[in-house]
Structures are given as C-alpha cells and as structure tokens.
Amino acid sequence: MITEKARPEILSLIRQHYPQLAERNLQDAIADEGTIMHFKAGSLIMDFGAYVKIMPLIIKGSIKVSREDEEGNELFLYYLKPGETCSMSFTCCLMDKKSEIRTVAEEDTTLIGIPTRFMDEWMSRYPSWKNFVMTSYDNRMLELVRTIDSIAFKKMDERLMDYLEQKAEANDSRTLNATHQEIAYDLNASREAISRLLKQLEKDGVVQLGRNRIELL
Amino acid sequence: MITEKARPEILSLIRQHYPQLAERNLQDAIADEGTIMHFKAGSLIMDFGAYVKIMPLIIKGSIKVSREDEEGNELFLYYLKPGETCSMSFTCCLMDKKSEIRTVAEEDTTLIGIPTRFMDEWMSRYPSWKNFVMTSYDNRMLELVRTIDSIAFKKMDERLMDYLEQKAEANDSRTLNATHQEIAYDLNASREAISRLLKQLEKDGVVQLGRNRIELL
DNA sequence: CGGTTATTGTGATGTTCGTCACTGCGGGCC
DNA sequence: GGCCCGCAGTGACGAACATCACAATAACCG
C-alpha cells in the first residue's frame, strides 16, 4: 500500500468522481485531511475484527467486500466501485467497533482515505456530506438485501452467473481470471459443484473456459 | 389502525423509551409532529412497493420485517422492538423510494409516527437525532449480515431454532402460536420439512408441540 | 526435459431438503 | 352426532448439492 498527500490532486479527483460533494469548504476539508492511497490487486485492505481508522472514497479500481463466519466459511457480498464508499467502515468509525467484513482490492485500486474523526463533524456541517453518507448506507443496505434474495431464493447456477457478471463489471473485462476454487469460496459452495456448473455453462455456450480463465460470451 | 395526537403522552413515552434523544428541543419537536399509532397483532403496517410516509419509533409490541422476491417467495428478516426504528423506512423517506420490505405487527403494537419531511432537517439540527439514525442504520445492517450468515452457513434445523428463539423474544413468551406452514413461509422452506424438524426437536426435548402451538423448553 | 504442483474433470455415494400423495386428527358448526 | 376443513404426520421419490477419491492436464521451474 502506498500513500501520498497531494492537495491539488485530491481536489481534482473529488470534483471528478464525487460531484455530489459540491460544497467548496467540504472539498477543501477533504483535500486537507484526506490521503491518496494505492492498493495492488489482491491486497488485503481491511480484515475481520480490525478497527477501522479511515473511510475510503474510491477513485479507481474496485474492492471486494466479503463476510466470514466463526468456522471460516466465507461469502462474497458485493463490490465497491469508484464513486462509492464503505458504509460498514462508516459505522465502525462512529461506534469504534470491530469490522464485520473483509475488504480486498479486486483490481489495482486508488482511494482517498478520510480519517474517521472527521466523519461526525462533517455530517453536521456539510449537508452534501450527510446526503452522501445516507445514500451510501441505503445503497449498501439494498445490496445486502439483494444478496439475501440471491442466497435464499436462487439456485447455484443462477448465483454463479450473477457472480460472474458482477465480477466482470468490477474488473471491466469479460475475461475473468479466477480458479474454480476461489469462486467456490466466494459462493460458499464446493469446487466440484462450481466446476460442473461452469462446464454446463460452457456447453450452453454462455462462457468459454480456460485454465485460470473464464470468458463471458 | 388507530392514531391519536397526545402531546404530553408522547413526551413521556419518548423520555421513557428513547432516553438517548435527550435534547429538549428535539423532544418537543417529536411531541409536536409525531402521532401515536396503534396496530393490532397481525395487521399489515407497510407492504412492498408502498411509499413510506412516516418513520416509526416503536414504543410497545414488536414488528416483523420480511422480504419477498418477484415470484412471491417470502423470507423473514428480523423483528423490531421498542426503542428501535425502521432504517429502511428512513432511506425510503429521504429518497422518496418504494419500500423493499414488508412490515407486520407481530404483537399489538404502539409506535410514534414521525412524518418523513422532518427527518432530514432534524439530522442537521439535533446531534442526538443524527446519532440515533446512524445507530439504527448500523444495527439493521448488522441484522441483515446476521441473516445472511444464517441462510448461507446454517442448516435448516439451526435456522429453525434461531427463528423460534427470536419469535419468543419478540412475543415475550416461550409459548408461540404459529402453524408449521407460517414458519415454513418465513424460512422459505416446505411445510413438511418444518414439521419433521419440529418433531425431531420435540424428540430431543427442546420443544413441546401442540396444535397451533410451540412451547420452548 | 522431467518432475512437481496447481488446477480441473469425473464417478460414486450421502445428506438435506422439496414435492407429491396421501392419512389422521381435532374442533367448530349445522 | 356427522360433516368439514384446516392442520399435522408420513412415506416415497427426486433434485441439488457436499464429500471423497482419484485421474488427467496444464503450467512452471530447476
């Protein structure tokens, strides 16, 4: 992970990716207090149980958010993309609580990290910040409900297709690099089941498979 | 549903059930704008797709929150109890969006309804209101993540036990009135499966079954 | 190039439900 | 009492995976 302070650059990035944060004073505050951070694809940004110290405003790339239970079962929840933030971090900040989720850089990712101590103050001071935070919450909530729908109501083949589509979008590419085992972990399924379903999808002409590679057609 | 304006009573209820909303001005505002509402057990408070017009502060009873997909599959999410509010309503208000959930009174329930147009203004004006809203969001988020854990990682017998425990708590009674079919709907399972699992739980000495009645031991 | 390791394919078998087709039971109501 | 009807119990069968045990490739590396 590489960090840098770069006031003018932050200003420009915010204006470009977060136009809804329109107040000049807020933009200045972000430029003053924020830090540009770079994460390499695959690097762990925040693990379960970690105390969150920054709130990320994502600029470039994408972040995979997932959940793990006590026994180590893992489950993919959703991706965060540029223009979005992690609402989970948000409450962790305010409440000084441990993280319930894990975040990993899906691609090479750039974000502006805001130290948590400003969250609360800005909520009262800048209406557009308040709206941004509330909207983020709402979007994440919706994302979680959709995840619930998916797990509760859909069968594995459909969940798999949804997953592949989401991953393709997060990576801006219809050709995905992933092993069947990794996918199985994300969907909390067995590798064999995923292999067989992928084979079926290939037979159906929906994907093309290679070693470590899945191409969506 | 019965509603009433009752300024002094609202003041007293708020102080009793929402001590964290400590600001006098806020309490006055709630008393001025809020309405006491009563719902009979089983009555529908808000359906899918409805536009939310009030935010409920629950005083007495409990509310069942559930989700339904396009094909009509239903799934129980969580209960709301006194001292809590429905964060989902909250964003619906702000964004003027349709509801993603259904809420039904589990017991006879009393709540204070706050018209949605005050939500936003109060957020900026009263820090304790802002904190209350943020905390509610966080709690609901956590509740959703726990629901995901339950569906994704647990088998039906464990989910059933969890469900019964939650229902017992919501109803303040270890003796529940419900048909196997109703439970099956809430867990998105088949009646037969629930019947068999309950029978097994009875054999294990965990519950005692009767017609329309389940007693937790 | 050969050997090692990561990845994928495949068959056999078991478990957890879902579905279907009934039976039995209990309570209310004519 | 006899009749319904909603609820609960039950057996048979199948579908959707999980699990286990390997075989078959493909990549990688000294």
Q: What report would you give on this structure?
A:
2 copies of one chain form a homodimer. By secondary structure, the first copy, chain A, is α+β, with helices and mostly antiparallel strands. The first copy, chain A, has 2 domains: 2-152, Jelly Rolls (Sandwich), CATH 2.60.120; 155-216, Arc Repressor Mutant, subunit A (Orthogonal Bundle), CATH 1.10.10.10. Helices cover 46% and strands 24% of the residues of chain A. Chain A is built from 8 helices and 11 strands. Chain A has helices spanning 7-17, 24-33, 87-95, 119-125, 127-153, 156-171, 180-186, 191-203, and strands at residues 2-4, 35-39, 44-46, 54-60, 63-68, 74-80, 102-105, 109-115, 175-176, 207-210, 213-216. Chain A has a 4-stranded antiparallel β-sheet with strand order 1-2-8-4. A 4-stranded antiparallel β-sheet of chain A has the order 3-7-5-6. In chain A, strands 9-11-10 form a 3-stranded antiparallel β-sheet. In chain A, a hairpin with a 5-residue loop joins β5 (63-68) and β6 (74-80). In chain A, α1 (7-17) packs across α2, α4 packs across α5 (127-153) and α7 crosses α8. Chain A is elongated. Chain A starts with a strand and ends with a strand. The model of chain A has no long low-confidence stretch (mean pLDDT 91). Chain A binds a DNA duplex (30 and 30 nucleotides) through residues 155-156, 179-181, 189-193, 195-196, 198-199, 209, 211-212.
